[in-house]
Amino acid sequence: YPSGNLAIIITREKDQHTLIVQEDELKTAKIRALFQSDGRSTCYYRNGDEWINMSIHGGQYLDQAGNRVRRWMWLNLSPEPHVPLSPIFISLNRHVGVRILAQDKIFISFLAMGRQAKFNMGTKVQVSAASQLPPPAQLGEDELLLLAFRVRILQLFDRMRGCLNFPSTEQWNKIQPPMYLMTQAVKILELCMAADISDELRSSIKAIVNA
């Protein structure tokens, strides 16, 4: 961002890659969106509530009260009648926008100081490939909480190290968490979406890892 805060992170693990959009904040690196090359993606409102959630089968659009405004299935992925996607455009903030036109046309645009970067995180998943994907792992409430607190403790330890390295300046506040901690936080949020837990617990876990 023009402020110097990190806006977009792209990671690659084997043949899979992930794009993470962070909020333009100094002390906290809130995740505003997560896009994965396996077809799973989630966008969040500024307060951390889910905005858009997509999988290899389709997606849904929620309002800020948590009500589902729109639901769709990707074309040619289901033999049953379904509602196709109408193009969606949202602004995560004044610099980052998301356009969802089709399963293989999901664009993330970053615009600042007259320059633009555009990423296409869409993918085309065949029906045969979709049927072979294993179901997401299901974890219990206690396990999810323990994972969230573990990441939070590691984040605090990392911040303490930054404070010790820069004891007479506020520069340590600008240091981003290690990549492995950000990746773990994202994975925990994914597990929460797949788990059969209450919305209250899901919100609590989001608050812990994004604190």
Automatic annotation (TrEMBL):
Name of one Pfam family that matches: FAM194
Output the InterPro entries linked to this UniProt entry.
Answer: FAM194_C (IPR029281)
Domain FAM194 C-terminal, chain residue ranges per copy: 1-175
State the superkingdom: Eukaryota
Q: What is this protein called?
A: ERIP6 protein
